[in-house]
Amino acid sequence: MYIITVQLIHNKQGDSHIMERTFLMIKPDAVQRNLVGEIISRIERKGLKLVGGKFMTVPQSLAEEHYAEHTDKPFYNKLIDFITSAPVFAMVVEGEDAVNISRHIIGKTNPSEATPGTIRGDLGLTVGRNIIHGSDSVESAKKEINLWFKAEELSDYTGSREAWLYE
Fold this sequence. Notes:
Layout: E1 6-10, E2 16-26, H1 28-32, H2 36-46, E3 49-56, H3 60-66, H4 76-83, E4 88-96, H5 98-106, H6 119-123, E5 132-134, H7 138-148, H8 162-165
Antiparallel strand pairs: 1-2, 2-4, 2-5, 3-4
């Protein structure tokens, strides 16, 4: 079963907006450095709405499925070992253009190339310890949300601040 990752909402004036959902994962390095609250705060301050989240230790099978596209790469085993080494905070956020906006908040994969002000630019040091994962497309978000969350683990609600975020 697929969780809907795009939905149409209407404001009081009858205007409609397409709301996307995307998957983000605060990685073990950020959890160990006590950065979960700061990272979530940055995402929420931007205007994205948290609709699902869970603190968990990633099972080997889930890690392998999540990173299946990297099985032929030399860093694959280190990646699997790292992501299963300590807890992560997996989450789904929602907002207009959520995938693109979250990618900008996160910053480039290599923290040394990430812009100051981004999560990786401010908090990361190396590619292997780059703080956070974010879906890179709506298609990836759909796949990753369904891999990490059951439909009943996600909330559908309209926040009172949405009228102040979207025209």
